[in-house]
Amino acid sequence: MAADYRPLCLLARAAAGGKREGRGGGPPRTPLSLMSQGRRGLGRSASPAFCDKTGPHAPRSSQAAAMSALRFLLLVLGLVAGTAQAQAPAPVFRDCPVCPEMISVPAGTFVMGEDGPRPETRPAHPVTLDRPFALGRTEVTFDQWQACVAAGACPGGQDDHGWGRGSRPMINVTHADAQAYARWLSALTGHVYRLPLEAEWEYAARAGTTTPWWFGDTLSPGWVNCLHCVTEPWKDHASAPVASYPANPWGFFDMHGNVWEWVADCWTPDHQTPAGPGPCRDGTIRGGAWYHIKAVSQSASRARNPLPVWSYIVGFRVLREIP
User: Fold this and answer.
1) Residue 175: enclosing H or E segment and its boundaries?
2) Domain map of the chain by residue range?
3) Quick one: angle between helices 142-150 and 175-189, nearest 10?
4) Superfamily (CATH H level) for 10-321
5) Bridge partners, 51 (sequence order)
6) Which run of H or E residues covers position 263?
7) pLDDT classification of 295: cutoffs 50, 70, 90
8) What distance in Å separates the CA atoms of residue 305 and residue 309, rounded to the nearest whole number?
9) Are 148 and 292 in contact (CB under 8 A)?
10) Which of 49, 258, 269, 294 is the most buried (most CB within 10 A)?
11) pLDDT tens column, 99-130
12) Integer distance in angstroms from the first to the last C-alpha of the chain?
């Protein structure tokens, strides 16, 4: 039976005024349409450099030619650079005892998006990241978030839905909450932390690969925490502790499934209208979640989420700029 690519619906509750205690307790009630879309452009305030080599106004023939040339290099040369990077992931580091573990990512060019049936992820196109960066090895956890709460820099009271806290991914956080955590890390360490751009996120998720998942064209049970995808011990239709499934070739865990992850970009409906980071009403989330089918956990998968809305299927990871 063919996969259903119609818009998904996640249940969430909009963040509102009043007490934060118990946020997320009880079933989320506000329908949230998950409609994916293509790569976002770069806002001036974000500063990390990446370049769409075809450009939003390039003729389709130019885009096709560029895409064909890049695919030829990647396929015929056997993804030489990507394979070398995959065989030697960068060392894990952290900037402070309560900081998340980070992995450095080299600058490079990759194929972002796909030419599949989902219009929001089309077209596949080459993107160049001009500068290296470091990305969280895992999604930010409850324990890591609590350190920010204890410092008075992040709101508390988020519900864990009875799944446990500790090393589970932090959930029930808005886009602004995630940014507050990144600002706290920046102040604590003296380094610039922020949410990743979509291009940075997908580059790290693919880790030198061009297949739907970093491990290939098909998904076997036990590789990803998504709906009908898992095996023991995490098969309870819930989040799993971070790093419960295999890491990708660059050392990142849970880039597919577990919880959706906030990125910096505003939402736009297609590749040709880049938006970059805010201000805006709707943001973008990446990676899929335990709540959704396997097709939604692919490297190119993306979805819209209103910035003030939190959910038990949405978390985040942070990026650290490298000077």
Assistant:
1) helix 175-189
2) 10-321
3) 70
4) paralog of FGE (formylglycine-generating enzyme) (3.90.1580.10)
5) 128
6) strand 260-266
7) very high
8) 7
9) no
10) 258
11) 999 999 999 999 999 988 888 888 888 999 99
12) 49
